[in-house]
Amino acid sequence: MVKLTMIARVTDGLPLAEGLDDGRDIKDAEFYKQQVKALFKNLSRGQNEASRMSVETGPYVFHYIIEGRVCYLTMCDRAYPKKLAFQYLEDLKNEFERVNVAQIETAARPYAFIKFDTFIQKTKKLYQDTRTQRNIAKLNDELYEVHQVMTRNVQEVLGVGEKLDQVSQMSSRLTSESRIYADKARDLNRQAFIRKWAPVAIVLGVVFLLFWVKTKLW
């Protein structure tokens, strides 16, 4: 069965819409929603280039498609047919683009299209029972294939983002430390220059002072 549905803008991970009734029958629903948000964050950084992917997480699977810089994601039971999951997402995509395409890029607040929940709930009901004649026909549709959709584990997918974050943080730290070392090196060079030429400057100053006093006296 379809358990969760969320839609987000890929460029910045901003959530645009979701099924408001989703997750009520799921234990740890908030945990899985946080995983979805982490996936959106990874996508916003360009860390998953596949436009269609299935991501396994516990007893469920996230399926998502990316189209027009928008990610349409659903979480289903592992036993739920992948083919139906992606056709469900296609239906959402087609309607969402038809109704909201002009406002997607300018949306500035989370869940700006929350009213789309009405269509999500109506469409989800059509896909819940895999034994209906309609869904059996979709499963037998040879023109729509999902065999080449990649399947990965959620720890693997999110782990990539964590490792890249660590590399980024390390790079920033090294850059900062390099600046500190460079500043210290300049200070040391300045001090060495002063120690080397200060005695000479003092001697020259004394000589100049004596010469000036002598000229004044004579």
UniProtKB/TrEMBL annotation:
Domain (Longin): residue spans on this chain: 6-120
UniProt-listed SUPFAM superfamilies: SNARE fusion complex (SSF58038), SNARE-like (SSF64356)
Chief location category: endoplasmic reticulum
GO molecular function, one term: SNAP receptor activity
Regions that span the bilayer: 193-213
Similarity annotation: Belongs to the synaptobrevin family.
Protein name: 25.3 kDa vesicle transport protein
